[in-house]
Write a structure and sequence with these properties.
The longest helix is centred in the last third of the chain and has 13 residues. Helix 4 packs across helix 7, helix 9 crosses helix 12 and helix 11 packs across helix 12. The strands form two sheets. This protein has a two-stranded antiparallel ribbon. The chain has a two-stranded antiparallel sheet with strand order 3-4. It is mainly alpha-helical. The protein is globular. The chain contains twelve helices and four strands; from the N terminus they run αααββααααααβαβαα. Helix content is about 35%, strand content about 5%. The termini are far apart. It folds into two domains: about 130 residues, Cytochrome Bc1 Complex, Chain D, domain 2 (Orthogonal Bundle); about 130 residues, Cytochrome Bc1 Complex, Chain D, domain 2 (Orthogonal Bundle), CATH 1.10.760. Its cofactor is heme. Its EC number is 1.11.1.5. InterPro entries: Cyt_c-like_dom (IPR009056), Cyt_c-like_dom_sf (IPR036909), Cytochrome_c_Peroxidase/MauG (IPR051395), Di-haem_cyt_c_peroxidsae (IPR004852), MauG/Cytc_peroxidase (IPR026259). GO terms for molecular function: cytochrome-c peroxidase activity; electron transfer activity; heme binding; metal ion binding.
Length: about 325
Amino acid sequence: MKLLSPLSLAILAAMSAAPAAAKEPIEIIQPAKITAPEKVELGKMLFFEPRLSMSGFISCNSCHNLSLGGVDALPTSIGHNWQEGPINSPTVLNAEYGLAQFWDGRAKDLKEQAGGPIANPGEMGYTHELAVSTVNSMPAYQTKFEAIYGKNSVNIDNITDAIAEFEKTLVTPNSSFDLYLQGEQDAITAEAKSGYQLFKNKGCTSCHNGPAVGGTMYMKMGLVKPFHTKNPAEGRIAVTGKEADKYVFKVPTLRNIELTYPYFHDGATWTLEEAVNTMADIQLGQQLSEKETVEMVAFLKSLTGEQPQIVLPILPPSNANTPKPVPFEK
Protein backbone atom coordinates (compact mmCIF):
# COMPACT_ATOMS: atom_id res chain seq x y z
CA MET A 1 0.00 0.00 0.00
CA LYS A 2 1.41 3.35 -1.07
CA LEU A 3 1.75 5.86 1.73
CA LEU A 4 0.75 9.47 1.16
CA SER A 5 3.41 12.11 1.55
CA PRO A 6 3.05 14.70 4.34
CA LEU A 7 2.17 17.31 1.70
CA SER A 8 -0.61 15.12 0.27
CA LEU A 9 -1.97 14.48 3.73
CA ALA A 10 -1.99 18.21 4.46
CA ILE A 11 -3.86 18.93 1.23
CA LEU A 12 -6.46 16.26 1.95
CA ALA A 13 -6.90 17.54 5.49
CA ALA A 14 -7.39 21.06 4.24
CA MET A 15 -9.92 19.88 1.66
CA SER A 16 -11.91 17.90 4.19
CA ALA A 17 -11.88 20.77 6.66
CA ALA A 18 -12.84 23.38 4.08
CA PRO A 19 -16.00 25.15 5.15
CA ALA A 20 -19.23 24.58 3.33
CA ALA A 21 -19.26 28.31 2.59
CA ALA A 22 -17.83 27.77 -0.90
CA LYS A 23 -20.90 25.71 -1.82
CA GLU A 24 -23.43 27.98 -0.22
CA PRO A 25 -25.46 30.82 -1.81
CA ILE A 26 -24.47 33.09 1.08
CA GLU A 27 -20.85 34.18 1.32
CA ILE A 28 -18.82 35.28 4.32
CA ILE A 29 -18.46 39.00 5.03
CA GLN A 30 -14.78 39.90 5.18
CA PRO A 31 -13.38 42.52 7.59
CA ALA A 32 -12.68 45.93 6.11
CA LYS A 33 -9.25 46.46 4.56
CA ILE A 34 -8.30 50.09 5.05
CA THR A 35 -5.70 51.24 2.53
CA ALA A 36 -6.23 55.00 2.85
CA PRO A 37 -6.68 55.72 6.58
CA GLU A 38 -6.42 59.51 6.23
CA LYS A 39 -9.16 59.57 3.63
CA VAL A 40 -11.31 57.26 5.76
CA GLU A 41 -10.92 59.59 8.73
CA LEU A 42 -11.85 62.63 6.63
CA GLY A 43 -14.85 60.73 5.28
CA LYS A 44 -15.93 59.91 8.82
CA MET A 45 -15.82 63.58 9.73
CA LEU A 46 -17.96 64.45 6.72
CA PHE A 47 -20.36 61.57 7.45
CA PHE A 48 -21.04 63.09 10.87
CA GLU A 49 -20.93 66.69 9.60
CA PRO A 50 -24.36 68.34 10.17
CA ARG A 51 -23.24 71.54 8.46
CA LEU A 52 -23.61 69.78 5.11
CA SER A 53 -27.32 70.45 5.59
CA MET A 54 -29.29 73.70 5.39
CA SER A 55 -30.41 73.32 8.99
CA GLY A 56 -26.95 72.60 10.31
CA PHE A 57 -28.62 69.69 12.09
CA ILE A 58 -28.90 66.76 9.67
CA SER A 59 -25.88 64.63 8.79
CA CYS A 60 -25.48 61.34 6.94
CA ASN A 61 -25.62 59.68 10.35
CA SER A 62 -29.06 61.15 11.02
CA CYS A 63 -30.70 58.71 8.61
CA HIS A 64 -27.97 56.05 8.71
CA ASN A 65 -27.34 55.97 12.43
CA LEU A 66 -24.34 53.77 13.19
CA SER A 67 -25.62 53.09 16.69
CA LEU A 68 -28.88 51.72 15.23
CA GLY A 69 -27.66 49.30 12.60
CA GLY A 70 -27.06 52.03 10.01
CA VAL A 71 -30.72 53.14 9.84
CA ASP A 72 -32.93 55.64 11.68
CA ALA A 73 -35.52 53.08 12.87
CA LEU A 74 -38.36 55.16 11.37
CA PRO A 75 -40.87 54.23 8.66
CA THR A 76 -39.47 57.04 6.51
CA SER A 77 -36.74 59.53 7.35
CA ILE A 78 -37.21 63.07 8.64
CA GLY A 79 -35.87 65.65 6.22
CA HIS A 80 -35.21 69.38 6.24
CA ASN A 81 -37.85 71.45 8.04
CA TRP A 82 -39.36 68.25 9.48
CA GLN A 83 -40.46 66.95 6.09
CA GLU A 84 -41.65 63.37 5.87
CA GLY A 85 -39.30 61.36 3.70
CA PRO A 86 -40.63 59.39 0.73
CA ILE A 87 -39.13 56.00 1.57
CA ASN A 88 -37.56 53.89 4.30
CA SER A 89 -33.87 54.56 4.88
CA PRO A 90 -31.77 51.52 3.89
CA THR A 91 -28.85 50.53 6.07
CA VAL A 92 -25.41 51.87 5.23
CA LEU A 93 -23.81 48.76 6.72
CA ASN A 94 -22.34 46.50 4.02
CA ALA A 95 -23.74 48.89 1.40
CA GLU A 96 -20.56 48.55 -0.67
CA TYR A 97 -21.77 45.09 -1.71
CA GLY A 98 -24.83 46.48 -3.52
CA LEU A 99 -24.99 46.56 -7.31
CA ALA A 100 -26.22 50.16 -6.97
CA GLN A 101 -27.48 52.52 -4.28
CA PHE A 102 -30.95 53.70 -3.21
CA TRP A 103 -34.04 51.48 -3.39
CA ASP A 104 -34.47 52.31 -7.08
CA GLY A 105 -30.76 51.97 -7.90
CA ARG A 106 -30.46 55.51 -9.24
CA ALA A 107 -26.90 55.94 -7.92
CA LYS A 108 -24.24 53.67 -9.39
CA ASP A 109 -22.06 53.60 -6.26
CA LEU A 110 -21.53 54.98 -2.76
CA LYS A 111 -19.80 58.10 -4.04
CA GLU A 112 -22.71 59.07 -6.26
CA GLN A 113 -25.16 58.24 -3.50
CA ALA A 114 -23.38 60.48 -1.00
CA GLY A 115 -24.08 63.56 -3.09
CA GLY A 116 -27.80 62.92 -3.45
CA PRO A 117 -29.19 63.70 0.03
CA ILE A 118 -27.07 66.85 0.41
CA ALA A 119 -28.81 68.54 -2.52
CA ASN A 120 -32.23 66.97 -2.02
CA PRO A 121 -34.67 69.63 -0.69
CA GLY A 122 -36.58 66.91 1.14
CA GLU A 123 -33.50 65.53 2.90
CA MET A 124 -30.55 67.74 3.86
CA GLY A 125 -31.95 70.66 1.87
CA TYR A 126 -28.59 72.15 0.86
CA THR A 127 -26.79 72.61 -2.44
CA HIS A 128 -23.46 71.19 -3.52
CA GLU A 129 -22.13 74.73 -3.90
CA LEU A 130 -23.05 75.63 -0.32
CA ALA A 131 -21.64 72.35 0.95
CA VAL A 132 -18.31 73.10 -0.70
CA SER A 133 -18.32 76.67 0.66
CA THR A 134 -19.06 75.38 4.15
CA VAL A 135 -16.27 72.82 4.19
CA ASN A 136 -13.81 75.16 2.47
CA SER A 137 -14.45 77.88 5.06
CA MET A 138 -12.71 75.89 7.78
CA PRO A 139 -8.88 75.78 7.73
CA ALA A 140 -8.76 72.36 9.41
CA TYR A 141 -10.73 70.84 6.53
CA GLN A 142 -8.58 72.65 3.96
CA THR A 143 -5.47 71.11 5.49
CA LYS A 144 -6.89 67.61 5.42
CA PHE A 145 -8.12 67.89 1.83
CA GLU A 146 -4.78 69.27 0.67
CA ALA A 147 -2.89 66.40 2.32
CA ILE A 148 -5.09 63.83 0.57
CA TYR A 149 -6.16 65.40 -2.73
CA GLY A 150 -3.77 68.31 -3.28
CA LYS A 151 -4.13 72.09 -3.20
CA ASN A 152 -7.51 73.75 -3.73
CA SER A 153 -9.17 70.37 -3.65
CA VAL A 154 -12.31 71.04 -1.60
CA ASN A 155 -15.03 70.19 -4.12
CA ILE A 156 -18.11 68.02 -4.15
CA ASP A 157 -16.32 65.26 -6.04
CA ASN A 158 -13.73 64.88 -3.28
CA ILE A 159 -16.26 65.38 -0.49
CA THR A 160 -18.36 62.48 -1.75
CA ASP A 161 -15.25 60.42 -2.50
CA ALA A 162 -14.12 60.72 1.12
CA ILE A 163 -17.57 59.87 2.49
CA ALA A 164 -17.70 56.79 0.27
CA GLU A 165 -14.25 55.68 1.41
CA PHE A 166 -15.46 55.78 5.01
CA GLU A 167 -18.69 53.96 4.19
CA LYS A 168 -16.72 51.14 2.55
CA THR A 169 -15.32 50.33 5.99
CA LEU A 170 -18.79 49.87 7.51
CA VAL A 171 -18.92 46.10 7.18
CA THR A 172 -20.12 43.63 9.80
CA PRO A 173 -18.00 40.46 9.81
CA ASN A 174 -17.98 37.53 12.22
CA SER A 175 -21.70 36.98 12.56
CA SER A 176 -22.58 33.68 14.16
CA PHE A 177 -23.77 32.53 10.73
CA ASP A 178 -20.41 33.41 9.17
CA LEU A 179 -18.68 31.40 11.88
CA TYR A 180 -21.01 28.53 11.04
CA LEU A 181 -20.09 28.79 7.37
CA GLN A 182 -16.45 28.59 8.40
CA GLY A 183 -17.04 25.27 10.09
CA GLU A 184 -18.11 26.12 13.65
CA GLN A 185 -21.18 23.91 13.79
CA ASP A 186 -22.20 25.15 17.23
CA ALA A 187 -22.05 28.81 16.24
CA ILE A 188 -25.78 28.87 15.50
CA THR A 189 -28.73 27.11 17.10
CA ALA A 190 -30.60 24.11 15.76
CA GLU A 191 -33.52 26.43 15.01
CA ALA A 192 -31.27 28.72 12.97
CA LYS A 193 -29.88 25.74 11.02
CA SER A 194 -33.42 24.60 10.24
CA GLY A 195 -34.30 28.16 9.29
CA TYR A 196 -31.39 28.37 6.87
CA GLN A 197 -32.40 25.12 5.21
CA LEU A 198 -35.94 26.45 4.98
CA PHE A 199 -34.59 29.71 3.55
CA LYS A 200 -32.94 27.73 0.76
CA ASN A 201 -35.76 25.26 0.20
CA LYS A 202 -38.39 27.99 -0.13
CA GLY A 203 -36.33 29.77 -2.78
CA CYS A 204 -35.37 32.87 -0.76
CA THR A 205 -31.76 32.57 -1.90
CA SER A 206 -32.75 33.22 -5.51
CA CYS A 207 -32.82 36.90 -4.50
CA HIS A 208 -31.05 37.01 -1.15
CA ASN A 209 -27.57 35.69 -1.81
CA GLY A 210 -23.94 36.76 -1.85
CA PRO A 211 -21.99 38.33 1.03
CA ALA A 212 -24.73 40.85 1.92
CA VAL A 213 -27.52 38.28 1.51
CA GLY A 214 -29.11 40.66 -0.99
CA GLY A 215 -28.29 43.81 -2.87
CA THR A 216 -27.13 42.00 -6.01
CA MET A 217 -30.29 42.31 -8.14
CA TYR A 218 -33.65 44.02 -8.62
CA MET A 219 -37.01 42.32 -8.07
CA LYS A 220 -40.66 43.26 -8.21
CA MET A 221 -42.25 43.78 -4.81
CA GLY A 222 -45.41 41.71 -5.11
CA LEU A 223 -44.20 39.08 -7.54
CA VAL A 224 -47.02 36.60 -6.95
CA LYS A 225 -49.55 38.76 -5.11
CA PRO A 226 -49.83 42.57 -4.95
CA PHE A 227 -48.01 44.34 -2.11
CA HIS A 228 -50.52 46.67 -0.50
CA THR A 229 -48.98 49.89 0.75
CA LYS A 230 -49.81 53.57 1.08
CA ASN A 231 -46.26 54.50 0.06
CA PRO A 232 -46.20 56.15 -3.39
CA ALA A 233 -42.72 54.90 -4.41
CA GLU A 234 -42.81 52.96 -7.69
CA GLY A 235 -39.23 51.70 -7.80
CA ARG A 236 -37.05 51.35 -10.90
CA ILE A 237 -39.62 52.85 -13.26
CA ALA A 238 -38.56 56.27 -11.91
CA VAL A 239 -35.06 55.57 -13.28
CA THR A 240 -35.71 53.60 -16.46
CA GLY A 241 -39.17 54.84 -17.46
CA LYS A 242 -40.09 51.26 -18.32
CA GLU A 243 -43.51 50.03 -17.26
CA ALA A 244 -42.00 46.62 -16.56
CA ASP A 245 -39.94 48.23 -13.79
CA LYS A 246 -42.96 49.47 -11.87
CA TYR A 247 -42.70 48.32 -8.25
CA VAL A 248 -39.28 46.81 -8.95
CA PHE A 249 -36.78 47.62 -6.19
CA LYS A 250 -33.25 46.67 -5.28
CA VAL A 251 -33.32 43.55 -3.14
CA PRO A 252 -32.25 44.70 0.34
CA THR A 253 -29.46 43.13 2.35
CA LEU A 254 -30.54 40.82 5.15
CA ARG A 255 -27.34 41.31 7.11
CA ASN A 256 -28.15 42.75 10.56
CA ILE A 257 -31.83 42.55 9.68
CA GLU A 258 -32.89 42.28 13.33
CA LEU A 259 -31.45 45.80 13.82
CA THR A 260 -32.83 47.50 10.71
CA TYR A 261 -36.58 47.64 11.37
CA PRO A 262 -39.08 48.76 10.24
CA TYR A 263 -39.01 46.70 7.06
CA PHE A 264 -39.62 47.06 3.32
CA HIS A 265 -39.43 50.25 1.31
CA ASP A 266 -42.52 51.65 3.03
CA GLY A 267 -41.25 50.93 6.54
CA ALA A 268 -44.68 49.73 7.61
CA THR A 269 -43.68 46.32 9.01
CA TRP A 270 -42.09 46.30 12.45
CA THR A 271 -41.37 42.64 13.21
CA LEU A 272 -39.35 39.97 11.45
CA GLU A 273 -42.16 37.51 12.03
CA GLU A 274 -44.56 39.64 10.01
CA ALA A 275 -41.90 40.41 7.41
CA VAL A 276 -41.03 36.80 6.60
CA ASN A 277 -44.68 35.82 6.35
CA THR A 278 -45.42 38.75 4.07
CA MET A 279 -42.53 37.84 1.78
CA ALA A 280 -43.49 34.18 1.70
CA ASP A 281 -47.02 35.20 0.70
CA ILE A 282 -46.49 37.93 -1.91
CA GLN A 283 -43.18 36.77 -3.38
CA LEU A 284 -43.48 32.99 -3.20
CA GLY A 285 -47.20 32.31 -2.88
CA GLN A 286 -46.54 30.18 0.19
CA GLN A 287 -47.59 30.16 3.81
CA LEU A 288 -45.23 29.59 6.72
CA SER A 289 -46.27 27.60 9.76
CA GLU A 290 -45.64 28.99 13.21
CA LYS A 291 -42.66 26.64 13.60
CA GLU A 292 -41.23 27.65 10.24
CA THR A 293 -41.60 31.32 11.16
CA VAL A 294 -39.65 30.80 14.38
CA GLU A 295 -36.92 28.93 12.52
CA MET A 296 -36.66 31.49 9.72
CA VAL A 297 -36.39 34.36 12.20
CA ALA A 298 -33.73 32.48 14.18
CA PHE A 299 -31.67 32.15 11.01
CA LEU A 300 -32.10 35.81 10.11
CA LYS A 301 -30.97 36.90 13.57
CA SER A 302 -27.79 34.83 13.13
CA LEU A 303 -26.83 37.25 10.33
CA THR A 304 -26.12 40.06 12.81
CA GLY A 305 -22.40 40.73 12.69
CA GLU A 306 -19.88 42.78 14.60
CA GLN A 307 -20.94 46.42 14.44
CA PRO A 308 -18.39 49.06 13.40
CA GLN A 309 -16.66 50.50 16.45
CA ILE A 310 -16.74 54.23 15.76
CA VAL A 311 -14.92 56.92 17.69
CA LEU A 312 -16.87 60.11 17.10
CA PRO A 313 -14.81 62.71 15.24
CA ILE A 314 -14.18 66.16 16.65
CA LEU A 315 -15.29 68.57 13.94
CA PRO A 316 -13.60 71.94 13.32
CA PRO A 317 -15.36 75.09 14.50
CA SER A 318 -17.28 77.36 12.16
CA ASN A 319 -16.03 80.89 11.62
CA ALA A 320 -17.17 84.17 10.09
CA ASN A 321 -16.82 82.72 6.59
CA THR A 322 -18.92 79.64 7.25
CA PRO A 323 -22.47 79.85 5.84
CA LYS A 324 -24.97 80.19 8.68
CA PRO A 325 -27.46 77.38 9.29
CA VAL A 326 -31.14 77.94 8.56
CA PRO A 327 -32.88 75.45 10.83
CA PHE A 328 -36.35 76.99 10.69
CA GLU A 329 -38.30 78.48 7.83
CA LYS A 330 -40.12 81.59 8.99
